Amino acid sequence: MRRAILTALLCLAPLAASAGRYTRPAPFSPAHAGVTTRVFHPKELRDWRGGKPQLNVTVWYPAPESVAETPQWIGPPGAPLLSKGSAAPNAPMIPGLRKLPLLVLSHGTGGSADQMAWLGTVLARAGFIVAAVDHPGNNGNEPYTAQGFVLWWERATDLSDVITGMLADEEIGPRIDRDRIGAAGFSIGGYTVMELAGARTDVSVLYDECKEHTDLAWCHVPEMKAFGPPPVMLETARKTSRVSLARSGESFADDRIHAVFAISPAIEEVLTPESLKDIRMPIDVVVGNADPIAPARYNGDYLRSKVRGLHETVLPGGVAHYTFLDTCTTLGREKLGVYCADEPGVDRDAVHMKVAEMAVAFFKRELDVR
């Protein structure tokens, strides 16, 4: 009985703290999803990992219901490969003086901001401003670079710079509630948002494991094959990115962020146990029970064992890693192979909606959005 009471109190504690930190806004009306883009040029000296010195950002936001959404696609005109759901390009933001919470999204390695559309559009309809970045050197819209794949800790600086850019944006910035900012990420994007929560990296963990256990899935991610196995990529980075490597173990925490949602997070064992134990932030993790790229036992379970209060959900029924990418068209399934292949009985759209609704509930609760 005492244990049950203690558990209940621990569950209520974050809500009590949240209620004390924020002023509760008025109820939010239903909305459609608007979508637009931004390009940010951070002034601070930073490592671009061989990519363009700019941050390309996709922004979803609540638009009036009177504005029609239209289907959005990834791929050549007339021959789309993946669906980005529906949204209203460059629609006006929902009117009113109310400030809205901001969420920043981090895609998986070799992916893109657009691959987070299934999540961003749902969050926008729920009243969030959502900004997803193309990580330089590590996104599918630009040429890949070895540094883009190997200097993963630098991804956190991308999201911090996106927050700064969004807050300074003349059109969108005034509508953002600076006290209600969260982050979500998929795959290595899950690692990225854990960095923002305060986790620190020990790069030797992954590279040592890939030397000893060459059969580990993460050591042979399809997007990375052009650069060789991780130990080879590390040597490349040592020749070109000594400054970045030297700071890989530093903290990239951003105290503007108050809640984190990680989807099928990858390479979590590189995060030091000491830094994870120090995290005091609401964190939800969602993983699939059939993920060969980022198995829960080495990632979600690892985080749950180290981070106080972290909640982990394991989705059953054969949900795998790439189930969390945008839904493929028939042509996409023909062309993109493993990225579109789900286990029999797995409905990718249904999984997306379930996880997106979980994210909406999590951020509304932890950022005290009504």
UniProtKB/TrEMBL annotation:
Q: State the InterPro entries in the record.
A: AB_hydrolase_fold (IPR029058), UCP031982_abhydr (IPR016986)
Look up keyword Hydrolase and say if it applies.
yes
Keywords attached to this entry: Hydrolase, Lipid degradation, Lipid metabolism, Signal
Record GO biological process: lipid catabolic process
**Keyword Signal found:** yes
Which residues does UniProt assign to the signal peptide? Answer: 1-19
Q: Which domain of life does the protein's organism represent?
A: Bacteria
A Gene Ontology molecular function term of the record: 1-alkyl-2-acetylglycerophosphocholine esterase activity
- Protein known as: Predicted dienelactone hydrolase
Task: Name the source organism.
Answer: Bryocella elongata
